[in-house]
Fold:
Amino acid sequence: MKRVKIHCPVCNTSGKIQVDESLLENNQKGITAVNIEESIICSHSFVTYIDKNYNVRDSFVSDFKIDLPDIKIQKERRLNEFKHLDKMNLDSLLSEISAVELASILNGVFSKQNVL
Structure:
């Protein structure tokens, strides 16, 4: 992780963010857009463009904002529902599942589909 100094395009407040080096180095276009959320630098949300040399090329305030649901909390809640399954004996569990059901479960897991 490398620290990059950026400025808010609205209030000109400056601050440093940590940027994953592989994110910039593996970008084929040479410039990476980084979304700066509110409260990271100041009270504004904006996008900043950083090149492979860790120089800020430009920053701007977007015309719109997309709020994403907090998926992590939902996953943790769902994970807690099945926490007791950790204590189950794997052999006894596999003896209750037919080969066809096991193949279906593994197919769902490897194709990144919901199994539960």
